[in-house]
Protein 1
Amino acid sequence: MSVSTPALDYAAIDLMLRAPRVAVIVDGSDKAWVAAARIALAQSSEVWGGAGFVLVPHHDGKVGRTVLKAVVAFDPDYVATSARTIAEREAAAPGALVLAEENGAPITGEERVELIARVGEQEVFDELAAAARDTVVAACSPHRMRGEDEEGEPVWDDPLHQLSKADPTGSGLTHVDRLRAFAAKACLSAPPAWGGALGLLTAAKLGAVQRPDLTPSPPTVTGDAAVWMAAWLQGVFTLVPPEASELIANPSGGATFGFQVEQLPQAWHNSRAGLTTVSVGSTRHNPAWVVVGDSPDDFALWMVLDRLYGHAAWLHPDWFSADSDESHDVLDSIAHDWQRTRRGIHVCSARADQADVLAVRDLLQGAIDNPRPGRNRSRKRTVAAGDIPWSYNGSLTLAVRDNFSAEFPVPVHRDGEGGVEMVMKPPGPTLASSVAREGSHGFSWQVELSFDGSVMPRGRGLLGREICVEGQDPAHTYIRSSRAGITWHSERYDFTTPGMAPDQQVARPKVRELSLSDWVEAMSRQRGYTTQHSASGISAQVLATLWGGRGQMIDDLAGQWSKVLRLFGPAGAAGSKGSSATYEEGHGVVITGHGGVLTFKGIAGCWADDVEPGEVRMQVDRLVSGRVLRRGLALLCAECRKAAFVAVDELSQTNRCASCSANNDLDLAAWKKPDDEPLWFYDLHPVARELVLMNGVAPLAAAHHIKASSKSFTDAAETELVSGSKPVAETDVLIHADGSVVTGEVKTTDQLHSNGKERVKAAGKRALWADVLRADEIVLATTRDQWVQSSVTAMTDCMASYTWTTPGHRPRLRLLTGVGGPAVGSEYVDW
């Protein structure tokens, strides 16, 4: 939908090679969920990059909303289930696994026991886990390709489905034994016999060289020792607890004594070989995180925060109590030591009572406000609690140590609206021989490309083919829109042989970043719609081109220029003569059938008295150069007595009347007054006049209010969603600001519609747009001082009853009032 002509240019791209990110589905439905999670962590330890994986618990096939939002923020390349053996599932939930004869008759009693003993090491398909995986895949933007069957229904090609013994890595992942640095050496690992939450925390922080025992023992570390151990594992305490010696493992079968705990690597060491943790943006912008609770969802929330941002502490009842002095030492260290490199502290939970969350928040706030003797007073920060403000800024990922950032200049086409597409294939960097044991062939990694100044929203299920340049085979490799750019799988799926040059063995797709309007069109196309600009949107597009860009136009019209545009007014009243009755003397005249034209004095009168005329003159001249304004004279025809505006480019000593074709001399009779010399007037471009008549300035004022509080901002003109050839919904607001997509309605009245039925329809259109774009926010903006409550209720009722297509999608509702005025009101409304 971009209307500008692409221009050849150069752009700087940044290429990062990194390990895959995987979200692993585990069973969180029963009391033995810890064992299921431990198995998944042991499986992850066998995969290169597994130290950066996260676990996603499901409850009878369903994933909690808080966890789902966390995984969307984590942005996995793949989503996999964790396969468990029959024996492991039976140990976790005795009798729950249904074993049946070929005719469907259940197998019970001794026969069942014998069968499990015989086939217990076999892995079985978990239908509920598969359903949970489908939910997570639909909510996130992992690698997958979309095709169609004979009936035109979508068919998805997913490269990875589960971590299992039969196929411990699957397509897109690499087993650690392919690493040159692979070593079965002494390390710190979660003991197979350690049960409970502490055993799980140990496996999450250190990794595991063995799967857990089917019947793990109760934790041997309890009380204050458990507090110390948990704090040390999470980096809150630096002093090694005595019980840490129990964590020494030697997968080669050698001795586990005589080692210093501080000198041993983690069991994740193979998984992290050749990798380093890098951040996108500064980690100082994020707080330290504290997760309260003992549920599977609380663990999953902590794990995402730990992998995504770092400096996250899980406070589980097994090692935390608000009444324990040792626990208070933990909070004191978080409040003072962690906060030095972080922006405050945020306490949260997925399932714990709000009272428990607030109690921890108050304890942390007390530790900050009243430091212990010997503690320096830390920066005064307010400890936050509640919903997590997920952000990609400061996010962490495991990148290849020798290839985590390489910048290249490349030729591109730019469309003038932020869209950019590559003219040539990108470079094909490969892994250093120090990482892969047998070279890069058959070794899988992710390539992440980012353009400077990208305006395209990230993720949101955008199909990989939409970010391929025309002519690029979308099946060349798996491509997706990720949290930091465009990501593709290193392996190419056309012809390759081991003897080819390394840069020819890897995928090198020509990709593009879409402008916001093209992104909106692509997202709509995925749902079977097309898009087009509305009449006022077309006018705004044309005017933005003349103005020098939408950003400049929005900024100008948020100031005095909106007042200037309104002064030009509608066409004059009936009559044959121009009239100045609408304006102060010398400020302008109304020309019948045309509208008002203003003098410089009339335009400058919209600015404060302390603004220098020279500053206003520079702004006027800028818009004259862009043809938003035209300088000329208001002349009266001596024959038909009708007034007309004659632009300076068309002005001559003799001027022909546009109404009667009479020739008129340029003299006092034509310009009437003043007596000495004619007065210059300024006319407004007809498209700008039309925009004012259609109330098209109000959406620009709403956009400016959001822009003023945003670090990054781009927007698109008013757009219609079209089904077939029929427009079904229009949006006045299309904004991408600070990573969030905002849609909405802007009114000059105080309600969506005066008719109840039409009001419900209007609310439905707002929800439809948000659903199609996976928008983060719906804005209802008005130039009035407040919204009529019936319109707000219609919107909240609609959002609550709407069947959102994307699992877990829940946009916020924001009300803006007084838009275009000196004080804009902003309020978020719960639904």
Protein 2
Amino acid sequence: MTGEIQLHGQHDFEFVLLSYLIAGLAAYASIDLAGRVRMTHGSARKLWLLAGGSILGIGIWSMHFIAMLAFRLPEMIYYDPSVVIVSVVAAIVGCTAGYYIVSYHGTHYVQLLLAGFIMGSGIAMMHYIGMEAIQPVTISYNILLVGVSVVIAVIASMTALWVGFFSPYAIRGMKWNLKVLFSLLMAIAITGMHYSGMEASYFYIDGADMISNEGMFNREVLTILVVIVTLLLFVLFFFSIVLDRVLRKQGVLQGTLLDSADEGIVITETGNVILHANEAFYQLFQKAGLSRNMRNLHKYHQELMAGFPFLKETYIKVGSYIIEVKRHEIKGEDLNQSLWFFRDMTERKRSEELVEHMAYHDTLTKLPNRYRLEQKLESFVQEKRELTCIFIDLDRLKFTNDTLGHAAGDLLLQEVAKRLQQSLKAEDLLARVGGDEFVILLIDERASHFEEVSCNLIDIIGDTFTIDRTKITVTLSAGISQYPHSATTASELLQFADLAMYEAKKQRKNQIVVFDDSIRLKLNERIDIEKGLMEAIEERQFYLLYQPKYKLSDKGEELEGVEALIRWEHPLLGMRSPAHFIPVAEETGLIIQIGDWVLEEACFQWKKWMEQGLKPFSVAVNISPLQLVSEDFVERVMKIVSRTEMNPKYLELEMTESWSLTYENHIIEKLIRLREEGIKLSIDDFGTGYSSFRHLKELPVDVLKIDRSFIQLQNDSNGEAILRSMIQLGHNLKLGVLVEGVETEEQVRWLKNEKCDLVQGFYYSKPISVSEVEYLLQ
């Protein structure tokens, strides 16, 4: 460099310190404004973006020229105003571009690198353009140190952007003392970039070639300009602090409201970026094992995307937790935010599922119950799917309950259910619909395999069960119906299979019956009976016959009383047997009304006979179990007795032995009350229900009526022994004994010889009318 003289300068410490403070101030303002950029949208975001980029750019430019003022050369130097302006523009453009990239194109680290590079390049350009504004010197550079200064500028820029947009502090909000710390650290980097650049610069002046200083800024003018810019920066800085406090108060209020809520609450912006999430939200997802440092809501669950519906309660599963999510749109000028609510519904949903499971499943076997079966049937019928229904009834459950106890019976049911389930395929449906009743549903192609399945059931259930170290053999009865072959509705399918099962029970054990036209005919007849019963009650189509009962003694036979027997004369169908209509009446509940009519009619008739001057005798009336279990049974009986003026000591109520085995304490209490009123009680059909001595002893009864089937065995030595022991049992219990079905003189002589108390049967009389009873007595 011929004629050029190298100049050596020195720095004023006061200006160096001032430049550092200005750099820190610019960094603080930029961090604060970065938060505003990140939190706002639309035109407000654009305003904060321009303000943040401008303040940072001007602040760094101001720092640069204050640092230039701190550098003193031995020669008078000036500054080219046009180049100074260009340097300011370079700083502002670089900083604004960096903010723009990270705020509008997502907070990914690729954007951070790009934005940091552009911002750092802009700052470096500002520095070296500003150096070119110095006149009349020429500057040469150490390339290595220039590179170092550029790298420092880029790293400082990336750090500033990370702090303002990417760091956890940016997401949660940054306190002022932390902002100051980051600002001072960034100020070191910014001033370090400048002084590294100055260290890379060599200044020369050509004494022979002096440049005019016209239009140039001298040191004093530049000082005034820098002071003005610095003051402007201070104004913007304090404005930022005031605004930050106002917004922070709003944020604190908003955060307090959100954090006080028990529900998880989140505010998101475009890209599903979390702007605010309360502690309840983080705790909820932390329980599910997720981190609280994720910035995008959809990273907590893939369904929480921008397309998630508004104002719709939706359930998501996170780990083992069930969470209810509801999204609201936050409306306002240029806002694109959403308010999300999260509630832990795990316990509630599990409770609902448990309640639903209990409502639709049997508690003992865990199988679907009748409600679930009917629900499934309705669905399959609507879908027009081919179905076969197999209705199963176990034949020996009652025996197990009576001999081994109900706990053993429950174990037996569980083992039966297990065997049935194991014998079926996954697509078959097995349900428990009653105490000892199960239903198998075969669907679609499996529906045609009902013969194979049902025959297999007999083999499976026929294998011996071991319950409490006791071997039990179980048989079954099953009925089969098909849709749409025999049934047209879901209810018909179940009903027809049930009817077919009852037909199977009438036969020997392990029988399977398929519903056909003969069963349909019986069903239609049953329907006719049910309809007719209602009319019979209203139109008084019932009437009573009376069968005499005789007392045996050595002197002969004496009429002891009569048994009232109901008969039904249908106007179209003619005489209907009680064996046909009584079961229907019991199933429909009409038996209570009919039974009360029989009792009242028999009592009225007894009163009429007494008014005719006949000798008092007993009247026996059969009582249905449904009458006995009704709450007000005793009260109704006594009202009838009072209303008809019947003498209760001549009234006898008969109950079947099989039903007496099931009587509980409150039923026995009713019997005791009736007996205390003077009414006699007897057990009908004795010998058919397997009563034990202990059971008979507990029942408050007066007479055992031995079933007619036993007198038919009288000619057989074994049968004779059985009947004799039954008579002796009654006498040992201090009970009267009556034998039904007596038809021959030989039977009468034998019963007299065995000291039987009472007899009843066709040998003496068939059931007769009122007038025939009167004739017999007269």
